[in-house]
Amino acid sequence: MRYTTLFFDADDTLLDFKTCEYSALKRAFEKHSLPFDEKIKKKYVEINQSLWAAFERGEITKAEILSTRFRRLFEELSITGVGKAFEEDYQNFLSSNGCTIQGAEELCRELSKDFGIYILTNGVSFTQHGRFQDSGLLPFIKEIFVSEDLGFQKPAKEYFDAVMERVPEKDKNRILMIGDSLHSDILGGLRAGIATCWYNPERKENLEEIKPDYVAADYTELRSIIY
């Protein structure tokens, strides 16, 4: 086997973030006796994704994401009187929900017999560790690297340098980065000098100049690439 070590992104690669997100949002809105529907969820997702994209470009900090996203949402919805407790409640609800993509546990169980599996994520540390604790995947994972803990975020080379210092495998030719984001996972892997696999279940067209070594539309294709 050409690889010994697999770097997996978390959300939308192993964890079903959309399902977890919806559940946490619904519970937070219910707790604060606020209306919640598909239109509100869609507006929040737009705001949240734009802020995380800015974070990955190094334009804002993670603290700014957490202090801005719901404030901006409630301003657009003309909802007043909601404080920072809403963000805290949302994070707590999200951290207790480790729903996975169908087949992820089976995949990790199988791969862990032959490879070292590591999680590389830009999420909030408290939230991500809580979600993996609930996911059932922890027995198959060597370590979880959260950007908040390392002081750098994907796709920064410094983030991958910090990870490389803590994994046993030092030969970059033996490491494969797997993730759903071209800008975060694939660009980061390319900057780090390791092979990359774009996990693309929606079979999106790649219109970027970022070129992964492999593309997998499902876990069956991913297995064939890894082995």
Describe the structure.
The chain is α/β, with parallel strands linked by helices and 227 residues long. The protein has two domains: 5-16 and 99-226, Rossmann fold (3-Layer(aba) Sandwich); 17-95, DNA polymerase, domain 1. Helices cover 48% and strands 12% of the residues. The chain has ten helices and six strands, in the order βαααααβαβααβαββα. It has helices spanning 17-31, 38-56, 62-76, 85-95, 104-111, 125-135, 147-150, 157-164, 182-192, 219-226, and strands at 5-8, 116-121, 143-146, 175-179, 195-199, 214-216. The protein has a six-stranded parallel β-sheet, sandwiched between helices. α4 packs parallel to α6. The termini are close together. The mean pLDDT is 95.
Mean pLDDT: 95
List segments where confidence is low: pLDDT < 50 over at least 5 consecutive residues: none
Strand content: 5-15%
Largest sheet: 6 strands, parallel
CATH superfamily of the largest domain: HAD superfamily/HAD-like
Class of the largest domain in CATH? Alpha Beta
What structural category arises from helix and sheet content? Answer: alpha/beta
CATH-defined fold name of the largest domain: Rossmann fold
Domains counted in the coordinates: how many? 2
Helix content bin: 40-55%
Work out the helix count.
10
Rg result: 18 Å
What is the H/E order? EHHHHHEHEHHEHEEH
Write down how many β-strands occur, each being a DSSP E stretch of 2 or more residues.
6
First-last Cα distance: 6 Å
The CATH level-2 architecture of the largest domain is identified as 3-Layer(aba) Sandwich
Strand order across the largest sheet: 3-2-1-4-5-6
State the shape: globular
